[in-house]
Specification:
By secondary structure, the protein is mainly alpha-helical. It folds into 2 domains: about 130 residues, no CATH class; about 120 residues, no CATH class. The radius of gyration is 21 Å and the shape is elongated.
Length: about 280
């Protein structure tokens, strides 16, 4: 049951105390809304979660997302401007790691504040307005981190084309691999800035970047390879670092590019350089 239908949070005790009136109707509507939220979360053009069980930044976000989609549908608010606001809620929540704690509280509170924003352009929620791109920890290593998973979703959303062929990858849960760009065996780093999603690792294996990517330049030209790498959020500075086996410069270049993308996804933030203590979690 979403918070929208009964105006409550989603704690177990609250759900067990729900009144029976219109329960079947509300339950069916909630299920439909959850299905729609799942569809949006897994759509490569939206939140780009390849496998919800493995890659969802926070599975509990499905509840809030479902409630907001249901509200937009029922209140005839399913239009472009509200979808953009919904997207800002999603990405700001992911990269501020807001659902790490206090999930039940955030579910109802987020719903209420987002509905206010849907109805009034001036009511931008504080956690969006004060979201600080510079404070996002892009050096996380844990695959269970919301930020780590959010970065992987950004790569999928960007296209994540096959390094060698330049073709769209087969992003099926059983076929994709979370791969090191600079091989871990040699360069000893697991940070998400050194990771991307690919269809196969058989040819790349543990080859150093200069060896592997110089061969691809010969096949595709530098500009052709750069077009592919951009779908992994690697720009020309990142490619130059790959060709020089310079891990530090590569991480710096990719961090800069990923922060740019995150900033573009949350345009209603006040400033990209706000102090860390202003970033509401």
């Amino acid at each position: 049951m979403t918070p929208d239908r009964r105006g409550t949070d989603v704690r177990r005790n609250t759900i067990l105390e729900l009144k029976a009136e219109q329960f079947n109707e509300d339950w069916c509507s909630a299920c439909d809304a959850l299905a729609e939220a799942y569809k949006r979360m897994t759509d490569p053009k939206h939140y780009a979660v390849v496998d919800v069980r493995k890659w969802a930044p926070a599975s509990s976000m499905l509840v809030t997302l479902a409630a907001l989609l249901d509200h937009m549908k029922r209140k005839k608010g399913a239009h472009a401007s509200n979808y953009k606001k919904l997207d800002e809620w999603y990405w700001a929540t992911v990269f501020a790691n807001r659902y790490n704690e206090g999930v039940n509280t955030n579910t109802l509170s987020d719903y209420q504040r987002m509905v206010e924003w849907f109805n009034d352009e001036t009511k931008v929620p504080d956690f969006i307005r004060k979201f600080n791109v510079a404070s996002v920890d892009l050096h996380v290593e844990s695959q269970s981190s919301a930020i780590y998973r959010g970065v992987i979703s950004l790569v999928v959303r960007a296209g994540a084309k096959d390094f060698k062929t330049g073709k769209e990858p087969a992003l099926e849960p059983s076929k994709v691999q979370d791969d090191h760009v600079f091989p871990r065996k040699i360069f000893k780093t697991d940070v998400v800035l050194n990771r991307t999603l690919i269809s196969t690792n058989q040819e790349k294996s543990d080859a150093v970047p200069s060896e592997y990517f110089k061969a691809l330049v010969t096949i595709n030209t530098k500009d052709g390879l750069l077009d592919v790498l951009r779908t992994h959020l690697i720009d020309v500075s990142g490619l130059d670092a790959l060709l020089a086996n310079d891990l530090t410069k590569f991480l710096d270049a990719r961090e800069k590019r990923i922060r740019e993308v995150i900033g573009e996804l949350v345009p209603h933030r006040i400033s990209p350089s706000a102090p860390d203590d202003e970033n509401i979690q």
